[in-house]
Design brief:
single chain, about 350 residues, alpha+beta, 2 domains, two-stranded antiparallel sheet, about 35% helix, elongated
Length: about 350
């Protein structure tokens, strides 16, 4: 990347800039730290009174912006027109593959979780999507395989229908079956209701992987024949029902929390039950109600993707004054509006 960046600066600015691989690593490290801290403007990391020593002492501000505007993984002349059409992420493909290779090399346990996240991006890109109910809804969709320690073991950025092989399970099932190719047998996999289905769980069991996840109502097995939601809500919270497949390979459990939840699992059944702590809005107090082992296990398993989604949600977005583009606004930017105004007022008084 350092050599490609030097060539790009030479072509754009007609100057020779000495950039080393160590400097590129420092730039990437500073960028990740900025995303976690969450200043609304990059320049604040070097501003007096707000400077972060881990960033300001590592790289001068102007040097950071030079790398930021010219960092290059692949030059336009290095790839043919046919490869550009087949590789929609060709500009960053070497970097993405390098990161993925590092993820694949991490030490793993036998407990995994799959989910989708949004990589915030406000620039021009044909794969950019709007996904509601996400902290940053505009960006690139990324399917993630994570472990119970919160580390990402594999990922796949969605590039269209050709992203995953067709296993006959739609995008949700196809994405997971592609990601679990590196998952060892006798592992446990957790997912949410967008991925779960009976046919999907059957395919996982063929690979020796035991899946657990919530289930949409329209995907429930016909033979389940649960009590309808209206009658179930008349009973106390914590009530549960369970149905097993004829071959007893899958257990379908319906449990009343705030509302009835259906879960499908090849690894857990309803027993043994414990006591779950839930909030009662009517009495404004916590209650302890019976809870099957399935929702408890699923809650712990899905918490694996909290850390990667948190980092992605806090990924840095700049303001229009710095990029000339409309940024992806989030709540962090709004919280800083008043503080920016106070800072500007203080600077005006000092200059006056």
């Amino acid at each position: 990347m350092a050599e490609k960046t030097i060539q790009r600066i030479l072509r754009k600015r007609r100057i020779i800039s000495k950039i080393t691989s160590q400097e590129v690593k420092q730039f990437l490290g500073c960028s990740m730290l900025m995303g976690v801290i969450g200043y609304p403007r990059i320049r604040f990391f070097w501003k007096k009174g707000l400077a972060v020593s881990s960033v300001a002492d590592t790289m001068p501000r102007d040097r950071f912006f030079l790398l930021r505007s010219n960092l290059c993984c692949q030059l336009d002349d290095d790839i043919s027109d046919d490869d550009r059409k087949s590789q929609r992420l060709w500009k960053v493909a070497p970097f993405v593959e390098m990161v993925r290779k590092g993820c694949l090399g991490l030490e793993r346990s036998n407990c995994f979780c799959v989910d989708e996240q949004v990589i915030p991006f406000s620039g021009r890109c044909p794969m950019k999507q709007y996904i509601p109910n996400k902290p940053n809804p505009v960006g690139l969709k990324n399917f993630v395989l994570a472990g119970k320690d919160g580390l990402i073991y594999d990922f796949a950025i969605y590039k269209g229908k050709e992203t995953f092989p067709d296993f006959g399970l739609g995008i949700s099932g196809n994405s997971v079956l592609k990601l679990v190719e590196t998952v060892p047998a006798c592992s446990t996999l957790y997912c949410d209701r967008w991925f779960s289905s009976v046919s999907f769980m059957d395919e996982l069991m063929k690979k020796g992987i035991f899946g657990t996840g919530t289930l949409m109502k329209n995907r429930m097995p016909k033979e389940a024949n649960f009590t309808n939601d209206k009658d179930l809500l008349k009973k106390s919270r914590g009530t549960s029902e369970q149905r097993l497949q004829q071959d007893s390979r899958l257990a379908c459990t319906k449990w009343v929390d705030k509302k009835p939840i259906v879960m499908l699992s090849a690894a857990f059944v309803a027993e043994p039950e414990d006591k779950g702590k839930i909030w009662c809005k009517k009495d404004k107090t916590f209650l302890y109600v019976p809870r099957p082992s399935v929702p408890k296990a699923e809650r712990v398993g899905l918490s694996a993707t909290v850390t990667p989604k948190f980092v992605a949600a806090r990924s840095y977005t700049t303001l229009p004054q710095e990029t000339g583009q409309t940024p992806v606004r989030n709540n962090r930017d709004q919280r800083w509006d008043s503080e920016r105004q106070q800072l500007n007022s203080a600077e005006s008084r000092n200059n006056g």
